[in-house]
Amino acid sequence: MQRIAASGRQGGVARVQATVGGKRVVPRKRRAAASAAAVAALSTPDRKPSSSTPREKRGLLDDDPLACHFSAWFTVDVPLEELDLSLTLPAGQAFRWRSCAQGVRWYGVLGRQALQLERVDADCLRCRYAPMDTPSAIVRAQLHDFLRWHPDAPRLTALYRQWSAADTHFGQVAPYLAGARVLRHDPVECLFSFICSSNNNIKRISGMVTYLARRYGQPVIPARTAEDNHDVRTSYYTFPSVETLAQQATVDDLRQHGFGYRAEFVVQAARALQARGGTAYLLALRDESDRREVHRQLTALPGVGRKVASCVALLSLDCADDIPVDTHVWQIAVRSFAHAWHGKTLTEKRYDAIGDAFRERFGPYAGWAHNVLFAAELADYQQRLPEGMRVARRVPEAARRRTSPGKKERAVLESSV
């Protein structure tokens, strides 16, 4: 495999830790959920928000029409620099979380629970859930697992320092993008979300994933009116099971609702996945120590190419060093360390080389570092960076035209093995 990042310090880059023969250097076993004792250590009863925070931003002026269905609030002690909800939830890894109240409160579904999350202050979040008859210990454990926030979880503050020392560009953007955390997603929803991501944008992906949930999932809280289905505060649906998608989803229905050619991939992948064991099959891949084997298993499914496999592996299968390569990451590579690739196309070897370069620079959590740099490329977060940095980071228009993936590159990104 071609290596393009030298060991030692060179051009502002320090080698952190490399992978060997495609094998991941960190143990793959991760706890399925935090223990009750560990969760209790990180969760505390609801406390009074800081008086310096406006009441409307603290969620204390609660006009939620379904508030009566939700539990009391409980607090999760996670600092802003470890988890910024506005930088994590809408940045292309979670597609069914919505916000209102100026992005302070977030609405989503985790398993069979409707959740509301909001930041109380710089030190903690608070959460409530429905239906409220679920034991709170179960919800807390699920939430901590989803947030990857338990006593032995990686701390972004330490990782940011390590990555900033390893890469000049990371060190420049890091102060403005603190708290961009990689979450631990349900592998079924993650897989079908990224099957929908092919040649797509975040808004349209969100619409497709939301349609799958509303059409084939189950309501967590029954909607009172048709309008409720279009209100982020009242629309909560589980994501459908593999079996439901395999047996009920049709290509015609999905095409009629804007899925295009992805409709066939969704239906075919659901049936193929059901034949392999469904959810249990995907969950078992979390215990696979070889990242290449995880990719081989995923790309055997219809509609899953290299980029989709990398996204699913990183975000739901504990492959913390996996590097999804899309247009943004290709441009980062060309701009930062592969200047000779200007005007070139993305080949299989170059895809591998980009991943190797990230792993050489950023170590066993290279995929998490990639997540920060990816967010820095998105228009929604450009405003967080100083104006001069935004201008300096942009590739000239002519170069963007040359380096954006064309037909050959898309074949690499989307091909199934």
Task: Spell out the key features of this protein.
single chain, 417 residues, alpha+beta, Endonuclease Iii, domain 2, TATA-Binding Protein, Endonuclease III, domain 1, six-stranded antiparallel sheet, 20 helices, 8 strands, 43% helix, disordered C terminus
Tell me what the structure shows:
GO terms for molecular function: 8-oxo-7,8-dihydroguanine DNA N-glycosylase activity; class I DNA-(apurinic or apyrimidinic site) endonuclease activity; damaged DNA binding. Keywords: DNA damage, DNA repair, Glycosidase, Hydrolase, Lyase, Multifunctional enzyme, Nucleus. InterPro entries: DNA_glycosylase (IPR011257), HhH-GPD_domain (IPR003265), HhH_base_excis_C (IPR023170), OGG_N (IPR012904), Oxidative_DNA_repair_enzyme (IPR052054). There is one protein chain. About 45% of the residues lie in helices and about 10% in strands. It is an alpha+beta fold and about 425 residues long. The strands form 2 sheets. The chain has a 6-stranded antiparallel beta sheet. The chain has a two-stranded antiparallel sheet with strand order 1-2. It folds into 3 domains: about 1-30 and about 155-180 and about 320-415, Helix-hairpin-Helix base-excision DNA repair enzymes (C-terminal) (Endonuclease Iii, domain 2, Orthogonal Bundle); about 45-150, TATA-Binding Protein (2-Layer Sandwich), CATH 3.30.310; about 185-315, Orthogonal Bundle (Endonuclease III, domain 1), CATH 1.10.340.
Question: What is the strand and helix layout of this fold?
Answer:
Layout: E1 9-10, E2 13-14, H1 36-42, E3 43-45, E4 74-76, H2 85-88, E5 98-100, E6 105-110, E7 113-121, E8 124-130, H3 136-147, H4 156-166, H5 168-173, H6 187-195, H7 202-216, H8 242-248, H9 251-256, H10 262-276, H11 279-284, H12 291-298, H13 306-316, H14 327-336, H15 348-362, H16 366-377, H17 379-382, H18 387-393, H19 397-403, H20 407-414
Antiparallel strand pairs: 1-2, 3-4, 4-8, 5-6, 6-7, 7-8
Helix pairs in contact: 6-7, 6-13, 8-10, 12-13, 15-16
